[in-house]
Amino acid sequence: MAPAPGAAPVAPPGRYAASGGAQLAALTARAARTWWRTPDYNATRFLITLGIALIFGSMYWKRAHERCAPRGARAAGREPACCCAAVT
């Protein structure tokens, strides 16, 4: 379908068809709709994150109150290994 002869071309008023704020609002609304369409996935992700946080928190619970450095090189190497084992 071609425009009528002598008709002015159709163009947006500026460089973009919508302002930056309107585009941001549309994208935010679309992301929110997508996010809340999958509540099971979000709940599972939250519970896994909470579980990992509890594991790490329990590993270092007493460490926060200690004021001294780890006892020797073996103790310093053991803690990161425990963290890796807890995550995997």
Structure keywords:
single chain; mainly alpha; 0% strand
What does this structure look like?
The chain has one domain (20-87). It has 3 helices and no strands. The protein has helices at 20-36, 39-59, 72-87. The longest helix has 21 residues, at 39-59. It is rod-shaped. It starts with 19 loop residues before the first helix and ends with a helix. The mean pLDDT is 76.
Helix and strand arrangement:
Layout: H1 20-36, H2 39-59, H3 72-87
Short summary:
The chain has 88 residues and is mainly alpha-helical. The chain has helices at residues 20-36, 39-59, 72-87.
Domains counted in the coordinates: how many? 1
- Please write the string of helix (H) and strand (E) elements: HHH
Main sheet properties: none
Give the overall average pLDDT. 76
Using the alpha-carbon principal axes, give the shape.
Answer: rod-shaped
- Supply Rg: 28 Å
Quaternary form? single chain
Q: How many H/I helical runs?
A: 3
**Beta-strand proportion:** under 5%
SS class:
mainly alpha
Task: Give the helix level as a range of percent.
Answer: 55-70%
Counting DSSP E segments of at least 2 residues, the number of strands comes to 0
Query: Roughly how many Å apart are the termini?
Result: 60 Å
Low-confidence stretches: none
